[in-house]
Amino acid sequence: MTAGKMSALILGFVGAFGLGVWTGPHIVDRAPDASTIAGSGVPAIETTATPEPAPVTAARARATERAAERAAVDEVVAKVPVSAPALHERLRPVLNRGANIDLAADGFKSAEEFATVAHAARNVEVPFLLLKHRVLDEGKSLTEAIRESKPTVNAAAEAELARAQARADLATVAGTVAG
Description:
Blueprint: H1 3-27, H2 34-39, H3 58-78, H4 85-91, H5 101-105, H6 111-124, H7 128-137, H8 142-149, H9 155-178
């Protein structure tokens, strides 16, 4: 292809694009506005659109159900104290053999936080005391503490897994404490 033909082809594409940009707004089918209707002598009809209620989908229903379950679990989990003997027995296998469970639980504000850090330490194979130090003393989130301790793992996923395991343990313990 010669330079002249190439230039003509490019100029043709640019011209077609420009023509499309110029004529596009005039070709698109648009509803007439109120002034056009009033100017034509046709009376304008005013309508008020009433919003239809959003259909309840199965996904939305499941999400609502899960939120209610989470709220119930949160209520149960909040009732378990860090010093509960049933919790200590439940977490003893999660911590290293011979660990002083009372010393391990010291400093945690909630049983959920204690159980979550214990499960995370076991899951990512990081010493419990190291994660405890980073979370309690350095004020880092569990995700940050895991990422700093073991950069090769997906810290967010591991923290979420540990949180789920802790909640399961606390739900079990809450049944024993209440019963």
